[in-house]
Amino acid sequence: MPDIISIGEPLVEFNAESLGGPRVGSLYSIGFGGDSSNFAVAVSRLGGSSGYMTRVGADHFGALLQDLWHEERVDASRVITDERHPTGLYFILRHGGRSEFVYRRADSAASHLEPSDLPEGMIEEAKLLHVTGITQAISQSACETVFAAIERARAAQVTVSYDPNIRPAIWPLQTARAIVRYTIPQCDVVLPNLDEGRLLTGYEDPRAITQELLELGAPLVVLKLGSSGSVIATPDDYYSVPARPVLAKDPTGAGDCFDAAFAVAITEGKDPVDAAIFATAAASRVVQGLGAVAPIPTRSAVLEDVSELRAEVHPRAS
Ligand SMILES: Nc1ncnc2c1ncn2[C@@H]1O[C@H](COP(=O)(O)OP(=O)(O)O)[C@@H](O)[C@H]1O
Ligand SMILES: [Mg+2]
């Protein structure tokens, strides 16, 4: 059984090769997305033992995703093929410097995930379960599946890591706020980005945001700050980990890779600061390439950057 389990919605990506909206003859290159699937692939490339649970459609795109997980050595042996609902898709349209994301994911196979889909033992025998707010947002049954998975992990003393990944396009803000704030105290590690931290707490400042999220009951909060790095907060400590100064081309998937690297490191027994350094190095490689999956680095590539980062980390006085 894999050590690190992720549950959610995978998507097949159609990325426009030229500027402007779709036109006759426009070319699109196929890639992959979906935060939880990106996470599962990243765990594997970073040297972890990765397992994924979802539903895909009985279609070409589901088969393509199965091939991806197979090639990436993600254990997807328990993924369900849903005969009645399609695999979710999205298009990336390019308008000069701006990218537009167009989703075709409503009523996707993954949105029909339900608690009884969770295989016996898969969570209980893992070291870490990773869940995200996108999975809670896509449907009520998927949301219930996330809560059921968390409950089973907690009963078996399996670490629960949680990325709120709040997407206003698919989740009314009031609902997102209520569900994420309800979920946080059930998790061991919470990894929001700055926008999400602000939305959840009403505070602007990382220190105040992490303080409030700790008070909700999460023992460890990792607040991701884009090109400003991240802060790691526990009831006793507050550390700042700077980002690597790199030429960023595309931030897509940086957070998912950060989460995956953090999960790999803590399941290996690293402390949260060392885990964040490993995660920062991994995420910095993702922002330098295009797309969420293609630029995910291997473990050895990340380790080259780690020692340089370690010298820069410092605790912050309160
Ligand atoms: N421009 C950047 N340069 C270097 N590292 C970056 C950059 N943007 C993001 N990162 C790294 O990726 C991590 C996650 O990115 P962030 O944008 O904060 O999260 P999310 O993708 O969840 O919104 C950051 O904590 C940082 O380590
Ligand atoms: Mg994110």
Automatic annotation (TrEMBL):
<dbReference type="GO" id="GO:0016301">
    <property type="term" value="F:kinase activity"/>
</dbReference>
<dbReference type="InterPro" id="IPR002139">
    <property type="entry name" value="Ribo/fructo_kinase"/>
</dbReference>
<protein>
    <submittedName>
        <fullName>Sugar kinase</fullName>
    </submittedName>
</protein>
<keyword id="KW-0418">Kinase</keyword>
<dbReference type="Pfam" id="PF00294">
    <property type="entry name" value="PfkB"/>
</dbReference>
<dbReference type="InterPro" id="IPR002173">
    <property type="entry name" value="Carboh/pur_kinase_PfkB_CS"/>
</dbReference>
<comment type="similarity">
    <text>Belongs to the carbohydrate kinase PfkB family.</text>
</comment>
<dbReference type="InterPro" id="IPR011611">
    <property type="entry name" value="PfkB_dom"/>
</dbReference>
<dbReference type="InterPro" id="IPR050306">
    <property type="entry name" value="PfkB_Carbo_kinase"/>
</dbReference>
<keyword id="KW-0808">Transferase</keyword>
<feature type="domain" description="Carbohydrate kinase PfkB">
    <location>
        <begin position="1"/>
        <end position="299"/>
    </location>
</feature>
<dbReference type="InterPro" id="IPR029056">
    <property type="entry name" value="Ribokinase-like"/>
</dbReference>
